[in-house]
Automatic annotation (TrEMBL):
Residues 40-219 form the FAD-binding PCMH-type domain. GO terms for molecular function: (R)-2-hydroxyglutarate dehydrogenase activity; FAD binding; metal ion binding. Keywords: FAD, Flavoprotein, Metal-binding, Oxidoreductase, Zinc. The lineage of its organism: Bacteria, Pseudomonadati, Pseudomonadota, Gammaproteobacteria, Oceanospirillales. Its EC number is 1.1.99.39. This is D-2-hydroxyglutarate dehydrogenase.
Length: 467
């Protein structure tokens, strides 16, 4: 416990960053003390906005001295309560650490402050004739530091991988208050433990990321999108295998007919073709030449002949491609009015069909009135399970029943040796479920790592695991 008053701690924070960079008004505490989850009420002590690594270091040292916890805050777009400050913590918001500098065209790298918005980096890369490929719906508000801390994935993982694959180096302030420069942007660096990887996906529990050197890629050639209607889920896997055997895909997504019905009912996006199918696959690829489109059409026809595809459409313009993507990307926003129960889970790609079928069967058996909406990044085995609240069922009763659903889902995840959190992190909402994916021995090693970097347990305590 702190030996000084809250007012004194706030005064000390003001002396570090300036009075105008510390907020204690109720609106700011509410705004910066939470993420997209709505389970926990935010109750931070103060919101502090550092501008330099040195200021972050001073904040961490103060927190250690006064035994006050820190919660890092990026774009607050997380879905696991990893950025929620519910117990009088200091929220360290990275909004002012948003500089992009030291662009190196030869190495294709650029240094970003942790507060750089994802879309800002994407635009910078484009302005310099390059490409930052990690992309997702929250790109306009999520921050690079938060993306790294949660190892964000998104819609192009099948081709470009996760955020982890694009981090060349990190500057961090550990829970002890030490500043570390990790990896120094090297491609090859075989000199012991790569501690950079511990901070990627660490959800701020080991320390605070202040800068990241991000790798960039060449710009893709014009992209073409295919949407294919398939009669059963197993057929999606046959389609994936067929196309991947002859083409390099930049995305392979799926969604159900129920999901598409919700999107097209809004009237913003038309149905892609008249034929209804149980599921739909969305494929994206670089249109390298006329021959590429010909190969895609040949594979499409082959899938039709095999009965794996009922109908389909290929984009003929950038506008049409964007509209086809909206069939997939508008799902989350569209179904939000039904107060959905959400789960973000994964298995290896080959196990996806039986995995999905088992989950759907057990939910339908116990709660036949629940409407299940499926979509996800099928090319990397990541499924998003969404169950919509029946209109006549009170919210409290719905979420109580969903606790049973979570247990069943996680037991199936464990059976298939999958992950209870594919890309949204653990935070507080899935901490209890960590044992379904991690062994007790692994968790003990994780606790030891946590205490090595953060012996006083001030860095985002209560997230991922308890020590």
């Amino acid at each position: 416990m702190s030996t000084v008053s809250s007012e004194q701690i706030i005064e000390q924070l003001q002396s570090i960053v300036g009075a105008d960079k510390v907020r204690t008004d109720q609106d700011s505490l509410e705004q910066f003390g939470k993420d997209w989850t709505k389970i926990y009420e935010p109750k931070p002590l103060a919101i502090v906005f550092p501008k330099t690594t040195e200021q972050v270091q001073e904040i961490v040292k103060l927190a250690n001295e006064q035994q006050v916890a820190i919660v890092p805050s990026g774009g607050r777009t997380g879905l696991s309560a990893g950025a929620v400050a519910a117990n009088g913590e200091i929220v360290v918001a990275m909004d002012y650490m948003n500089e992009i500098r030291d662009f190196n065209a030869v190495d294709r790298t650029v240094v970003c402050g942790s507060g750089v918005i994802t879309e800002q980096l994407q635009q910078f890369a484009e302005d310099n004739g390059l490409f930052y490929p990690v992309d997702f719906a929250s790109a306009g508000s999520s921050q690079i530091g938060g993306n790294i801390s949660t190892n964000a994935g998104g819609i192009k993982v099948i081709r470009y991988g996760m955020t982890r694959d694009w981090v060349a180096g990190l500057k961090v302030v550990t829970g002890k208050g030490d500043v570390l420069e990790l990896n120094k942007d090297l491609v090859k660096n075989n000199t012991g433990y790569d501690m950079r990887q511990l901070f990627i996906g660490g959800e701020g529990t080991l320390g605070l990321i202040t800068e990241a050197t991000m790798r960039l890629a060449r710009q893709p050639l014009p992209l073409t999108v295919l949407v294919l209607g398939v009669p059963e889920f197993e057929a999606i896997m046959s389609v994936l295998n067929t196309f991947q055997s002859k083409m390099d895909l930049t995305a392979f997504e799926f969604f159900s007919e129920k999901a598409m019905q919700k999107v097209i009912a809004r009237g913003d996006v038309p149905r892609p073709f008249d034929t209804e199918a149980e599921y739909y696959a969305l494929l994206e690829f670089e249109n390298l030449s006329d021959e590429t489109a010909d190969v895609a059409m040949t594979l499409f026809e082959e899938c039709m002949e095999q009965g794996w595809v009922l109908d389909g459409v290929m984009s003929q313009s950038e506008t049409q491609a964007k509209n086809l993507w909206r069939l997939r990307e508008d799902i989350s926003e569209t179904i939000s009015e039904w107060t959905p129960y959400k789960n973000d889970i994964s298995v290896v790609v080959s196990k996806v069909p039986p995995f999905l079928n088992e989950i759907e069967a057990i939910v339908t058996e116990h709660y036949p009135d629940f409407e299940i909406i499926w979509f996800g990044h099928i090319g990397d085995g990541n499924l998003h399970l969404n169950i919509l609240k029946p209109e006549n069922l009170p919210k409290e009763d719905f979420f109580a029943k969903c606790k049973d659903v979570s247990r069943w889902v996680f037991e199936i995840v464990e059976k298939y040796q999958g992950s209870v959190s594919a890309e949204h992190g653990v935070g507080m909402t899935k901490k209890h479920a960590l044992t379904y994916t991690r062994s007790e021995a692994e968790i003990e090693y994780m606790k030891a790592l946590k205490l090595a970097f953060d012996p006083n347990n001030i860095m985002n305590p209560g997230k991922i695991l308890d020590v």
